[in-house]
C-alpha cells in the first residue's frame, strides 16, 4: 500500500488472505515518497517467488501502475477512498492504464480490498487444488450465511 493510512482499507485484503490460508506479506511502498523502495520491491518480486501483487493506493494513485511496469506478475489495484474526491481520483488513476501494462482494478475501498484477495485466490487456485477447495468452501459458507429474510 502507498501509505500507512491505507491500512484501514488494505487490512481487509490481508484478513481475507488469512481466512483462505494464503501466505502473504504486507508492505508500505509509496510511489511518490519512496520511489527507490518501490523500484526495489517490484523488480525483485517475481524472483522472490511472489505470485500476485495487490497494490492499494489513494489520490494520485500511481503505485499499482508503476509496480505493474516493473514486474511481470499480475498486479491487482485497489483504489483507496480519498477524503477530497471519495476515491474517484484513486479509481481513475489506477484503472486508466495505457495498453501494454495491465492493472486489474477493483472497486473503491473495502469491497475492492476483499475482492482483490479473492481474485488473487482464484488465480492461484488454478494451479493449487487445495486452495481451490478452500476457496469453494469459503464461497459456500458465504452463500449459506445469506438470510432469506431481512429480520
Ligand atoms: C497515497 O496518498 C497513499 O496511497 C494514500 O492513499 C494517500 C495519502 O497518503 P498519506 O498522506 O495519508 O500518507 O500515496
Automatic annotation (TrEMBL):
Enzyme class: isomerase
Keywords assigned: Isomerase, Lyase, Purine biosynthesis
Amino acids binding substrate: 3, 6, 33
Pathway: Purine metabolism; IMP biosynthesis via de novo pathway; 5-amino-1-(5-phospho-D-ribosyl)imidazole-4-carboxylate from 5-amino-1-(5-phospho-D-ribosyl)imidazole (N5-CAIR route): step 2/2
Domain PurE: 1-146
Record keyword Cell membrane present: no
Molecular function GO labels: 5-(carboxyamino)imidazole ribonucleotide mutase activity; phosphoribosylaminoimidazole carboxylase activity
Catalytic activity: 5-carboxyamino-1-(5-phospho-D-ribosyl)imidazole + H(+) = 5-amino-1-(5-phospho-D-ribosyl)imidazole-4-carboxylate
Signal peptide (UniProt feature, chain positions): none
Family that this chain belongs to: Belongs to the AIR carboxylase family. Class I subfamily.
Function: Catalyzes the conversion of N5-carboxyaminoimidazole ribonucleotide (N5-CAIR) to 4-carboxy-5-aminoimidazole ribonucleotide (CAIR).
Name of the molecule in the record: N5-carboxyaminoimidazole ribonucleotide mutase
Source lineage: Bacteria, Pseudomonadati, Pseudomonadota, Alphaproteobacteria, Acetobacterales
Gene name of the record: purE
Amino acid at each position: 500500500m502507498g501509505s500507512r493510512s491505507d491500512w484501514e482499507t488494505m487490512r481487509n485484503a490481508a484478513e481475507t488472505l488469512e481466512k483462505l490460508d494464503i501466505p502473504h506479506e504486507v508492505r508500505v511502498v509509496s510511489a511518490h515518497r519512496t520511489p527507490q523502495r518501490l523500484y526495489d520491491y517490484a523488480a525483485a518480486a517475481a524472483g522472490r517467488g511472489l505470485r500476485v501483487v495487490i497494490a492499494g493506493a489513494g489520490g494520485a494513485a500511481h503505485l499499482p501502475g508503476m509496480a505493474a511496469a516493473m514486474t511481470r506478475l499480475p498486479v491487482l489495484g485497489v483504489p483507496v477512498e480519498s477524503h477530497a474526491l471519495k476515491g474517484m481520483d484513486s479509481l481513475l488513476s489506477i484503472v486508466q492504464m495505457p495498453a501494454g501494462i495491465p492493472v486489474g482494478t477493483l472497486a473503491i475501498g473495502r469491497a475492492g480490498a476483499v475482492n482483490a484477495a479473492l481474485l488473487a485466490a482464484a488465480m492461484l487456485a488454478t494451479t493449487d487444488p487445495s486452495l481451490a477447495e478452500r476457496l469453494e468452501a469459503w464461497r459456500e459458507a458465504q452463500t449459506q450465511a445469506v438470510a432469506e429474510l431481512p429480520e
